[in-house]
Each structure stands twice: as C-alpha cells, then as structure tokens.
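Task card 7
Instruction: Convert sequence to structure tokens.
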Amino acid sequence: MVMLAMTIRITGARYLSLVRFPREEAGVAKKHRNGYGIVYIFHHHRASLRERVVPFTDSIIAIHGICICMDFVLSIPDPVHKYVRLTELEATLISLPQFQRLKRIKQLGVAAVVFPGALHTRFEHSLGTMEVAHLMFERLNGGFDEMDCQKVRLAALLHDIGHSAFSHTVELGLRRLDDLAPPRHREHEAYTKDIIEAFGEHKVVKEALNNAGVTEDARSFFRRVGAIATGEKEMLDEHDRFLSSIVSGEIDADRIDYLLRDGLHTGMHFIGFDLQHLLEYVVRNGERVGLGREGASRSFDELVSINIGEAFLIARYHYYTTIVNHPDNVAANTMLMEALEQSLRKFSESSSKGEMQRELDRFFTAYDDNDVLDFIRKNGGDDAEKVLNALREGRIFHCLADLRSRALSPEMRLYIELLNKKPSLINGVEREVRSLMGTDRMWIRTSAVRGVPKYLEVKVGNGFRFLYDESKLAASLVMEILSSNSLYFYGEHAVPHAIFKEKWHDITAILEGTMAKEREGTGFQLERLLLLFHELLNVAGGFQKSVRYITRVYRMVKRVQERYPGSFHYVFDEHFRIVYAPELFIDIMKLGAMGLLHIMVEEKSRELADYGIENGCSDYPDRRNHIYYRFAMTSEGKRYCEHIAPSYEEYVEFLSAHMPEIYGEVYSGQNQK
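Output:
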C-alpha cells in the first residue's frame, strides 16, 4: 500500500512523520504515539492481507517521498540496522536450505585470522542488503507499487544465494585453474540466477507467493527477480532496470551494507559514512541511481551531493586497502587457495570431467565453509592438510615482500594489471620464480581495488553529470584507488630481503616474458590504448603535445574499435548523454595511475545553458567552473611505447595512417569536456 509522507527531524536521530492521505482512497488512519509526537499510519483494506501496523521506532530513517507499507510478519535484530523486517514470502525463503547455507559462509572468508571480529556471514549481509534496498526504494520511488517493492527486496535478499563457500576466496582460486574450471565456475552470479529461478517450482514458495497477492506465474516472477539481482539488465525493461540499479549499481544496497557491516565487524570504524545522510541525497536518474536533491538551496545541495559521493569513494578505497588487501589477509587467502588447488587437481586425476563439474557446482549450491575444508582434507593429501592445519592455528605464510604500486616502475604496474586480469598466468610466473629462488614453497599474489564507480552521477542544475567531472577530489580519488595495486611474495619461511633485492632484475625479466607471450597471442588492451594515446599526441602536437577533453578520446577509441576489429572490446553504453564506455574510463585512469600517461585535472568556465536562471534573479551568474582532463605522455610512457611498438606493428601502422583523419573528424565537432 502506498502513502504519501513527509518526515521532519526533531531531535537527535528521531523523526516525526506527517502523513497526507489521498481523499479518493478508502481506508482508515491509525494513531501511534511515541515519545515525540503522534504518527498517523494509513491502512488500506485488502481482503487478502490482514491489517498492517508499522511501528515508529528509532530505526526509522527520514524519507521524503513515497512510503510503502509492507505486510511484515517478522523482525530480526541486526547489529547495523537495528532490525530487519520480513514479509511472509521473505520469511519462507530464508527458512529454505538454500538460504540457510549462507549462515555457514563467512562474509570475509578467512579474514578472521587478521580481524578476529570478522566472523559475520553472507546470511546477515543478505538481510541487511534487503533492508537498505527497501529504504532506497522508498526514497527513490515514483510510479512504483507494493509489488515492485517486493521484487527489489527479494532481489536484494537473494543476490548472494549462489555464492561459493568462503566467499570470494574460492572464486579467486578457481580463476587460476583455467584447465579445471570452465568460466561458469568462476563467478557466482550464474548460480544465483539459477537458484532464484528454481524457487518458482517450489511448492511452499508458490503458496507464499499466492498469499502475497502475486498473480504472475511463479517461475516468470522469479526469473525477473533473478535478473534484477544479478544485474542482467538486457533481460529487463526500463522499469525493472531501475530496480536492478538499487541492488547492483554505483551506489547500491549491496555495497552500502557490506561497507558498513565489514567496517563494524573488523573494527575498522573509519570505513564508513552516514547512511541516513546518503539516503537523503540518493535520487533517480533514469535507469540509474545518482546523487542529488531538489530544493531551494540549489548550490548547497549540489555541494552536499558531491561531498557524499566523495565520502563513498573514500570508504571504498579504505575498505580495500585496509581490509581486503591487508598483507596478512592476502596470506591467509593464499594458504586456503593453495590447499584447495592441490585438492582439486588430485580430485580431477581420479574423476571424469562430468564428476569434476558436478563437484564444482556443489561449491556454489550446496557446500558451506566446513564442507570445503572437508573436501580439502579428503582429497588434498598430506601437503594440503599441513597448510590447512597451519591456517587453522594462525600460522600464516611469511610475507617475503609487499611491493606497493608506488615502489614499482610503470612497466611493473602494467605487468601486475595483466596478472589481475588473467590470474591463471600467475601459476607460470610462480613456477619460474620458485626455480629462480631454489624453493618450491613460495607463492605470488597480486591485489587490486575492484568495483571503482564508473558512472556515478550527481545532479547539477537541471541535469546529471559524472561526479569526476564536478569534483577534483573525486577525480584524484579514482587515480589513487587505481594506483593501490600490490605484488606480494609469500613463503613458509622468511627469506632475507637482500636475496630478493639481488634477484629482482631476474623476477622483472620473468614478468616481462609473461607480458611478451601475451602480446604474441591476443595482445593486451591496455597496451593498445597507450599506443593510441601516443599516436594521438603525435598528431595533436600543440602545447607540450597534450590533448584536452576525455569525451573526444572516447569518440576516437570508438572509431578505432569500429575500423580495426580486435583492437578494443569496450561496450559503449547509449544510455548516457555522451559516447561513453565505463571500462574505457577506468582503463584511461589506470594508465595515469601507472605513470604511463600524464592526466591533468583542470578547470574552465562554461556556459550555463542547461543550468538556468531561477526566480527572475537577473544578476545570477551565467557561468561556472567546469572540470576537464588534459592528457600528455610521460617520459616512461614514451619509452614503453617505443619498446612495444614492434609487437603491434600492424596496429601501429593503422594508427599512423588513420589517426589524422579520426582526429580531424572528432575535433571538428562541438567542444566537449
């Protein structure tokens, strides 16, 4: 049932709700008294639902807009959100074995070795994600009904139901095993979608669905819920694509909950932000969720929206650098992956291909953390058992070298990026380094910050603009986040630093050889992008051979991709106001973070044609500062391009022949940022 509501903050974290009821709707207003005032809750009479009571508690968050009153039958205490409320359908789903399994899968894998409080599970995270999704839906709702609210709540609740045991640790391990694990067994989203769709055939779930008043076919209903949960937006209409962005987008319920929850349980309380404040400034932007607010104090609200976006970026940066990429946490994950890899290889030797695939399926559909440990003990042999016992007793591998991005050359940063893109290559690098160091008890790992927002937008004037184009701090934060890659070397025993220093040149040669093999095969997209910049800057000339406006670069890359098949594989999204490929933006920023491309964030005044002059204020300013990007090659970038050009001879010849034409086509159009 829908009711129009306004909330007013009156003291502390308490809010008074003032509710306006449409005259044409029949119903009854119920009065609920609390310590600060009277709250009137409107209940619409429906034969299929009992009268609903929505208590006014400290956990209620201020929402301006449409409020949805669900038929909640259960409340579960939660350390982050105080209470999580469930409908009859949701209570039915969480009671099933498929969901109860999440109680036995730790949210952060083996991170408790480093952070003793990190024992929380995917079960409570899923409940918390649903609660945040409901709050976001209420804040963003317009033209939606109670059934839409139920769909987005279910998608949030079930978004991790196909997660592997030990969360991302097992997934990362399987990505290293190209010969054993097909692509389906490296990501949990496919399993999530299958499990959710299967609920449409479950008798108890179908009964609960009927009790909730859903008239749609059960399998069709859960197929849509699965697509919303996994972000398969090509399977959804615009209506449901927006619901999907609440669950899985740039500012979404999933990220909001795990940042707050993981920061709480690890004790890293500085990893956070004010949830109530963020919810006040989320706003619908077509099919996406952005930041902004309609209000009289326009410039102030724009500033706050930008500040909230910056705080969200900072939280994500701290989350990965402090928790996920903590050297000891990476060491513990390395131990588990090593034991699991040994077990899977031995299991494959005595099993058929079909048996192997069925066993991998169980990791995502049936096994919990203890089941994975049992699998390792049963199949891994003495060596895997030894590693597992050491991990259980807290005797983690020694970190022989923790090389942060700033300590590495630009070329080395690019090699690490290749290993992050293709983890299966690490096995070959490990073998060569072990031979070089004279030991078979050494492991190599890389780390990277994942999930950098690619299209987070803020409301400026009458339209939306990318946060990175409105905030120098946000643009710098993206560069900082992408420059936090690390290269780790682990061993069972400590190795003097002098030995590593002595062998470093040879280790670099091994990584260079791995990259050279990649060039001989399909090539590396980042290198092709760097070569494009090199040729573009040669054509552009001008002041210190620099080019301005990142949108022009987008259009040039799109033209090259169209005219030289195989050069790039970016997906240009037509739903933006400019030619834009989210992954291309990230790759450009990566080249800057690696020191191969010099990216300057500058300001320029722009006309406020879309900004408007309000309230007849004739002296209102008609220009404002606009952030744009200027690109130039670094000396390291130039040297690297000269080094790799022979490996991309045909591609470089194409650029030399066609870049002047492409440059002229793009720059003859209207100036853009």
